[in-house]
Amino acid sequence: MSSDTILKRFEHFGVRPGLERSRQLLAKLGYPHSAVPVIHVAGTNGKGSVCAYLSAVLAEAGYRTGRYISPHLVDWTERICLNEEPISPAQLQQLLLEVQEAIAPDEPSPTQFEVITAAAWLYFAQQQVDVAVMEVGLGGRLDATNVCDRPLVSVITSISWEHWQVLGPTLADIAGEKAGILKSGCPAVVGQLPPEARAVVEKRIAELGCPAVWPEPAAVLESASLSGEHPTRWASYRGIEYPLLLEGDIQLGNSALAMAALQILRQQGWEISDGTIAAGMAKTRWPGRLQWVTWRNRRLLADGAHNEASARALRRYADSLDAGAVTWVMGILASKDRAGMFKALLRPQDRLFLVPVPDANSAAPEELADLANSICPELADCRCFADLEAGLSAAAESLDNLTVLCGSLYLIGHFLKLR
């Protein structure tokens, strides 16, 4: 029985926030999470790249490092890594069988996310990792990853309006859920937050007595080179200088959060030199986020932007290229803030080619077209296509335009499978 087949069994249980099912399941598995030192990372945007930075540097420092992220782009194995290497399909299948065996037939079934999260805890415990970098799936307080009592560091990267259907309608509600990963007396690193979200997080930090750091974004240094061939952007945070291979100004903030967390680990006795940080940062990869790719001999930008805040960051990056009008190839899930994304991205004379997101609860391209035209009536072109390949083929005809594929991580994953 393949991992896909096992996980498919739990798909229909949907999203059901709560820790009781996870705790019951982990108890049956022997409390594997209790054996794993954890860096816990929550946030609306940026948490994946912060996890990527932290795991790359810690692995470079010689620590046995687990990393758990979601969602995956192409394959479930991407979610669970050891020293930057995805778990093998055979190992994942075996773990999922162990987790499935531990599910009591007379108790409420765990969700798909709870099952894969339990498999991650089990793997990291079996592999005796020195540390696991754990990304929150949704929210924080009631997320399946939030069973760790004493994280080494808790990180909240950003808070903006997403998943309001589950987390609550206001930024204060959403902030309260994300602040749920904070634990009494455990260090916290928090990114730049909107005022109403910051107030909620500050209050929780004070209640719990968390030593907290609120890092400013890193500073850009003059372009340097790792090999003498490819210019590389370098950044500096509190005296630590490092190459920054991930694109976009948003990474100045994200990398600073990772640096602040690493400095806390140093204070706890972890051996992580400045040279190790630079070498680890040079090896960091995070696909599907401001990633340049080639499709049919055409260079395009692929980015998983799927909310207003990430769309604003994507638009800033596109503007920084001085490329003029942009051709957007987009598919968006029905649950997302489509209007917010269009307001952030679209400008007069841009082109917009809309496609469905395969195998997901996709917004209908025709409805998206009506919305986009009402928000930006001066689009040079706005068309709907039956599938991604047709949309990309049409975009390839706009030879002078920067072409950007975005709107959903699931759409980016589908594109990477096509390639």
Strand content: 15-25%
How confident overall, as mean pLDDT? 94
* Largest beta sheet: strand ordering: 4-3-2-5-1-6-7-8
Gross morphology: globular
Overall radius of gyration: 21 Å
Number of strands: 19
How many helices?
A: 15
Binned, the helix content reads 25-40%
Structure classification: alpha/beta
Uncertain stretches? 225-229
Distance between the termini: 27 Å
Oligomeric status = single chain
The biggest sheet amounts to: 8 strands, mixed
Model description:
This protein is of the alpha/beta class. It is built from 15 helices and 19 strands. The protein has helices spanning 3-8, 20-28, 47-60, 89-102, 112-126, 164-167, 171-178, 195-208, 250-267, 274-282, 308-320, 338-345, 365-375, 388-395, 409-418; strands at 38-42, 65-68, 80-82, 85-86, 131-135, 153-156, 188-190, 212-213, 219-220, 224-225, 231-232, 234-237, 240-243, 291-295, 298-302, 326-330, 351-354, 381-384, 402-406. The chain has an eight-stranded mixed beta sheet with strand order 4-3-2-5-1-6-7-8, with helices on both faces. The protein has a six-stranded mixed beta sheet with strand order 14-15-19-16-17-18, with helices on both faces. Helix 12 links the parallel strand 16 (326-330) and strand 17 (351-354). Helix 7 runs parallel beside helix 8. Mean pLDDT is 94; it is low at 225-229.
